[in-house]
Every structure is written in C-alpha cells, then in structure tokens.
Amino acid sequence: MILQRVFLVSLLSVASGFSSVTHAATNPLEQSVLKHYADIAQAGYSDSLATAKLLEKAVNQLVVQPTTKNLNLARQAWFASRVPYQQTEVFRFGNPIVDDWEGKVNAWPLDEGLIDYVATSYGEASDANNLYSANIIANKELLLSGNTIDISNITPELLSDTLHEVDDVEANVVTGYHAIEFLLWGQDLNGTNAGAGNRPVSDFDTVNCTGGNCDRRIKFLQTAVELLLTDLEWMTNQWGSTGEARQNIENVESSAGLGVILTGMGSLSYGELAGERMKLGLILHDPEEEHDCFSDNTHNSHYYDALGIQNVYTGRYLRTNGTLLEGPSIADLVSAKNPEADNMLLSKLDLTMSKMQILVDTAINGEAYDQMIGSGNIVGNAKVQAAISALTEQTKAIGAVAVVLGLNTLDIEGSDSLDSPQSVQ
C-alpha cells in the first residue's frame, strides 16, 4: 500500500516531559542492540521459510490426493506460515531492502479475477485495472499493452517478472501469501456476514475437476509457493552474517541504526496497521479492506504484526520451535536513561496486545474480523477502534522514546484514514 509519509513532530512533542540526550558516537552497548535486532530479523525470516516449506509439503500432498482433509491441512499450514512472517513486518519500514522486497510476498489487496474464476458479483471490468478479470488460469494468452503474450506455461518467471503488479497496478497481485490464500480458499462471498472462502477441493482434482482448468490451477498454486520459498530464503540470507540487510544496520553510526528500528516500529504501528489495515476498513465497513480477506485470518495477522513491534522493543522473540531468543534491546537503553519513558512504552505495548487479544478471542468465539467492522455492529466496531487507539497511543510513546535517545525526528508513515479521514469517506 502507498502511504502518506509524515514527520510526526506532534507525536514526538508528547515526549517533552522526558529529557533528550545528546547522542554520542557509536558505543558498544548500542551496537549490541543493533546486532541483536538483526539476529531477531534473521530468526523471524528463517522461521517464515521453515513454515513455508511445511506449506509446500501440504500443498504437494493436496495435489497428489485432493481430499477435503488435505485441503484443510494445506489451509492450516498457510495459517501457521503467517505467524512468524507477520512478526517480521516491523523490519519493513526503515529498511529499504525489506520494503522494496515486501510486495513480492505480502502485497494486498488483490484483484482475484486476474488469477482465477470469480462470481458474477465481482464484475467484469474496472476503470482502474484493465486486467481486472483476465483469469490467467483459464487462458493461455493475455492481451497486455496491445500485445498478445503467451502464458500457456505458468513458471516462476512468468508470475514474478511478467505478471506481478503488471501495468503498474498494485492490485495485480499474483505472488505471495495472498495469492496462495485466494487459491486455497477462493472468494469470500459472505460480505460482513459469517463465513470465509469455501473453494471446493474438486478445484484441485484433475479427474473430477470443478471450476475448470484444474491442472493450471494446481500449477499456479505450486509455482506461487515455490516463489514464496525462494523469496523468503533470499531475505533470510540478507540478515545472515554477510547479508546486506545486516551490514546496513550494523555498519552505521548507532544513532542512525536506532532510528531505523524506531521508524519501523512507529510506521507499522501507525500508518500501516492502525491506518491502512484497520481504520480504513472500519471507516468504509468494507470486508475487502481486511488483510487476510479470503481466509478470515485477519485477527491473527493484526495480532502478530503488533507482537512484532513488541518483540523488537524488548529484544525477545519466541521462535516457532519454542525457543526464546532474547538479548540487548532498545528497552535496555531507554531504561538506563529514563525508566519512566521505558515503562510508559512497555505499558502501551501491553495495552495494544490486550486489545489485539480481544479481537482474537472474538474471532475464536465465532465473530470474524470482517463481521466486527460491519456497518451497524456497534460492539464489534468499538473493539476494532480500541485496538486502533491503542496503536496510536503506543506510537506516541515510541516518539517519546526516540527523544530520550536523542532522535528528535522520526520519519514515520502516516495514513489518510487517520490523518484526514474525511477524504476516504
């Protein structure tokens, strides 16, 4: 998503009660914080890769034996793969190498008619997208910019190099988690009523095929998963001992590195999560604006995004194998300089997680996130707004921490849905 970039001077001014420090040259403690930050990133992407490999295994089993049980197992594997990945999104903002790459693996929302068959209610055309209903799976040629191109062979190169975000349309998403999600679940045609997507397993059964072109649908799904693994392996390596992302954070003056970390925390907290992923959908009461819209997994994606922010501040990350990775953190630096500011941010982070847990509990009890944001659902709307407000308040506390560390300006992403909501009504 394209976000408004703002300097949150007003948020940073909240920190006026906390003392600012004059930042000295690079020191060993701060450098150890930057190194541990990179260690958490590497662990998170490594876990994302490991769970994606399990997803690949489950998808391959579905292809060999297209049963309802195997489709459900593939869906469960997709859910599991989202847990570590969402916790890595805090590394996106402030690290250009991650931000430039992220669109390959987590771009959303997508115009699903580009990929596969859709319901008639989807419509046949869009003024914003000439390929709105192109249906790659059903066709072996595609008219692109006046030229007919051959798409008979669905390859990683075709999806990633030719078709992903083709025509510079961000909704032309054919790679990453959400393309895979759509293929596993199909459209969610329930609006803000109960129910997720319900693609039949026979869509992957070449003997008893429904939906047509089951062989191409299988090929598309397997290719998208293959690309996901390739992309996650690449990013994991970027945070390795000689990786560019690690070098970029470790080989800078420590104040710049700390600014990267806090920028990532603040931008995900405010502009991306509170704004584009939550407030926009709440304003519009639009289920198409929920992050995991086909699977109704949005409550979990929001929860783990927020947890990633907390992880980075506290220097603690619980890996998928159950081991706890912990080490020097920004919290340690802030606590040494101003315990009040540290306690303030810790309490705000805890409050946010408690509000996110309410969304998770509500979904577990049968009311999905798209129902919570529905028009007229006063109680559900209030739960979502409470989480948005907590994220906004925690961003102010991040600004206060920045001042304590001598970083008086953070370049934090904003969102029209928060900064000028009248413009998105």
What can you tell me about this protein's structure?
The chain is mostly helical and 425 residues long. It has helices at 9-12, 28-64, 68-87, 96-106, 156-163, 177-185, 214-238, 244-250, 254-284, 298-314, 330-337, 339-364, 369-372, 378-404, 416-419, and strands at 4-7, 141-144, 147-150, 316-318, 324-326, 411-414. The chain has two domains: 4-106 and 176-186 and 197-424, M75 peptidase, HXXE motif (A middle domain of Talin 1, Up-down Bundle), CATH 1.20.1420.20; 111-172, no CATH class. The protein contains 15 helices and six strands. A hairpin with a 5-residue loop joins strand 4 and strand 5 (324-326). The model is unreliable at 1-16 and 19-25 (pLDDT under 50).
Features:
A middle domain of Talin 1, globular, two-stranded antiparallel ribbon, single chain, 2 domains, mainly alpha, 56% helix, two-stranded antiparallel sheet, 15 helices, disordered N terminus, 425 residues
